[in-house]
Structure formats: structure tokens, C-alpha cells
Amino acid sequence: MFGLFQRTRTQTIPQNRAVLRLEPLEWRDVPDGAPGDPTSPPTVPNTAPIIVNFAAEAVANGLFQISGSVADEHPSGLMITFGGIASANGLTVTTATNGTFSCTIQFRVDGTDAGFLTAIAVDDHSLSSQTAQVYVDPTA
């Protein structure tokens, strides 16, 4: 009778546990590529460009050298648009890598182009500068 009722051992299924561990992220790699650097790269807030040293110098009979500089986070390649005087209205110039710009404009010498030449810069975030102005009197 002992053979009919064999005692079987029950097998237990192994139990797995998941352990969740939280760790601070400030010691992980940061976007600037410096492993273990807890500081993030500095961010420069975007501000509107500013036109400085805007000037118009008479070169010859109605010919003026226009120059200036743009202060901005990224001053290279900004578009400067002129206005205020009919002969310069809508003309544009692009800034150099350091933010400077220069161009030569021929104004009429009959008195119709006398007045304030204006300039506006627009940066790559579509922010406009103040309206810079300089008085031009191209009379002979």
C-alpha cells in the first residue's frame, strides 16, 4: 500500500521581484557633453538687436557712406532695412560676422532726399531693433 500513495514534493515556482531605485540625475551626462558635470550649459536669453554708431558721411555729390553696428547674441548675417528717405526706402544690407554694416547710397541733390535716414535690424528670432536714425542733407 505504500506504493500507491507516494508522497510527491510540490515544486515552488521561483518568484522574481522588481526593485525600483530612484537616483539623482544631476550626476548624469548633461547635454553639453561633459560627463558628470552637474551644471547645464549657460543659456543666453534672446533680446532684440540694437543698432549702434549709425552714421552717414558725405563722400561726394549726393553720395553717402552709411555705416553702423548691431549688438545682438548672433550679430552675423542680420538684415538692416533702410527707410525714411525716398532714395533709400527699402534698401537692405547684411551685417558682417562682427555685426558691422556699411554701404554707399546715392541721394538726390535737389533737396527732395534731405531728412532722416532710418534703419531697422531684425534678428533670427524675428525681433526688431529700435529705429535708428541719422539726418542726411545731400544738397550740392
UniProtKB/TrEMBL annotation:
It comes from the Bacteria. This is Bacterial Ig-like domain-containing protein. It comes from Gemmata massiliana.
